C-alpha cells in the first residue's frame, strides 16, 4: 500500500514524533516501531508490502528527522510514553510490530496498557551494547559521528572490517548512517536500563521473531533468548536465513510473515 499522510504527534518534554501512514488513515491497522540506526523511511518497503492490515503507521521515533529531539529527559520510559501517545492518536490500531529496540519498547508498553497483538523482531535488552557505552559516550561528546557508526558496526553488531569499509565507501549510505547514529549513545544507555521480570503482561497474543542467521548467536540471538525468558507465553517464529537487517535485505519476506501473523 502507498503512504497517504504523515501525522505529527506531540509527546512529552516539548518534543514530537511523526508517523507515516500507509493505506487508509481511518481504518484499523498496525503500528510499526523501528529501533536504533533506523527511521520510518527505512521501513517504507515493508509497510508498502503488508496487505492484511488496511493501514500501517510507521513511527519515526524522536531523535531522527523530521521528529523532534531526544531532550534531556530521555530514557526508556520516554519511549514507552511516546508509543502510548501514538496509540492514543490512532485508537483504531489493533496491533504493534517492533523491531530491535522498538520491540523492547513495545513489550514494555504492553505491561501497562492492553494490546490485542504484539509482534517483535529480535528485540534487544541489557546487556546489549553495554561494553561499547564508554566509546559511544566519547564519540558523542566529540560529535564524531564517523566514530559512532564505526563503533556500532564493529564493536556491537560485529561486522567484519571489509564490510564496514564498503559502507564507508558509499557516501550516501555513510552519511545516512552518521545522521542516524546521533542518538545512539542515549538509546544504548536506555536499552541497558533494568527491566521487570515479565514483559507484555497485558498483550492478548505475543509473537517473537528471530532471524535464522542469528538464532542463539551473539549479539542478537542471545538478546532474543533473554527476552523470551521474560515472555514465556509468546509464540516464537524463525525467519530462515535472515539477519537483523531483514527490513532492508528481505522486506517482502518479512511483510508476508507479518501478514500471516495477523490472524
From TrEMBL:
InterPro entries: AB_hydrolase_1, AB_hydrolase_fold, Carboxylesterase_BioH. This is Hydrolase. GO terms for molecular function: hydrolase activity. Signal peptide: none annotated. It holds the Pfam family Abhydrolase_6. It comes from the Bacteria. It comes from Streptomyces ambofaciens. Residues 30-256 form the AB hydrolase-1 domain. Keywords: Hydrolase.
Amino acid at each position: 500500500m502507498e503512504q497517504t499522510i504523515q501525522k505529527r504527534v506531540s509527546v512529552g518534554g516539548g518534543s514530537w514524533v511523526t508517523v507515516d501512514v500507509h493505506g487508509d488513515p481511518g481504518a484499523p491497522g498496525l503500528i510499526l516501531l523501528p529501533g536504533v540506526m533506523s527511521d520510518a523511511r527505512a521501513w517504507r518497503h515493508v509497510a508498502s508490502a503488508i496487505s492484511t492490515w488496511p493501514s500501517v503507521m510507521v513511527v519515526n521515533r524522536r531523535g531522527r528527522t523530521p521528529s523532534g529531539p531526544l531532550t534531556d529527559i530521555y530514557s526508556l520510559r520516554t519511549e514507552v510514553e511516546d508509543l502510548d501517545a501514538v496509540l492514543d492518536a490512532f485508537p483504531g490500531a489493533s496491533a504493534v510490530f517492533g523491531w530491535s529496540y522498538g520491540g523492547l519498547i513495545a513489550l514494555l508498553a504492553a505491561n501497562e496498557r492492553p494490546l490485542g497483538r504484539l509482534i517483535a523482531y529480535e528485540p534487544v535488552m541489557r546487556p546489549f551494547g553495554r561494553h561499547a557505552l564508554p566509546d559511544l559516550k566519547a564519540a558523542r561528546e566529540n560529535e564524531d559521528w564517523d566514530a559512532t557508526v564505526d563503533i556500532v558496526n564493529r564493536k556491537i553488531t560485529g561486522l567484519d572490517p571489509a564490510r564496514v569499509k564498503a559502507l564507508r565507501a558509499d557516501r550516501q549510505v555513510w552519511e545516512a548512517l552518521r545522521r542516524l547514529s546521533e542518538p545512539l549513545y542515549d538509546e544504548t544507555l536506555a536499552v541497558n536500563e533494568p527491566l521487570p521480570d515479565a514483559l507484555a503482561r497485558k498483550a492478548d497474543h505475543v509473537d517473537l521473531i528471530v532471524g535464522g542467521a542469528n538464532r542463539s548467536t551473539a549479539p542478537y540471538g542471545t538478546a532474543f533468548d533473554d527476552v523470551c525468558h521474560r515472555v514465556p507465553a509468546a509464540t516464537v517464529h524463525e525467519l530462515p536465513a535472515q539477519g537483523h537487517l531483514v527490513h532492508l535485505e528481505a522486506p517482502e519476506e518479512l511483510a508476508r510473515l507479518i501478514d500471516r501473523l495477523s490472524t
